[in-house]
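Wed. Picked up where I left off yesterday with Siderophore-interacting protein. The coffee machine is broken again, so keeping this brief.
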Amino acid sequence: MADASLAQADLPPPFPQMDPELFRRRFGRAWSFEVVEAFDVGPRLRRVVYTAPDLDQFEHKPGQEVILMIPADGGHERRHYTIRSLDKAAGRLAIDFVLHGDAPGARHCRSARAGDRLTVLGPRGRHVLKDGADWRLFIGDETAQPAIFAMLETLLAGARADVFLEIESDADRQPLETRGEVNLVWLPRDAPAGQSQVLLRAAEGFELPPGEGHAYTLGETSIIRRVRQHLIGRGVAKANVHSEGYWRPGRIGGHEHVDD
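Structure written out below (tokens, as returned):
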């Protein structure tokens, strides 16, 4: 495979052409990735591992994402996925996909085979682990687990974090390795995905520790918005509540920034 760096002109349509500096700030770098392997890491979670010839130049912060240009219906669909892990020495970058529905991302991870190639943009994303927090709170559903685990794994020894993760059932629990002092609570949902209120109830019942806290709320857009508003209403600084809507029921490609 040739150099992993691609020019804008190499990107599949209908990708917009723009000023190179604006492109870099908005999308990061364009890469040509190749699938190494794909396997299940849980009943509803599948991992795809990619490589590229100069993956050693890939610089990201845990919690950031890439944009996958997934072939679909004669064209391409743009889908945002968090980088689960990066091993530069081994030349391996992993992304975890939640197996639900018939969306382009789900079809890609189910059909991915060694040697398949994919155009990827990134890294990008502003919701990463921030310094200066006395405590951290992570709230999300299983679509947020890759991002949350990627951040938790980089906590320094003694760093405090409370985590509430909504899952379909206890079978979806995943092991976590971290040096931080992490209280991880798995919450099997009590209603269909997108309707369960377990995350909001967890936020309402969480006793805010003293000091400056940072909260990371990621998952279904409407629920994440309510959790965000609740935390801000209780006094967590708006700038310290990092929120992202990864999906919405009935909508394909529902990635949204949640700032209100």
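Quick read: The longest strand covers residues 29-42.
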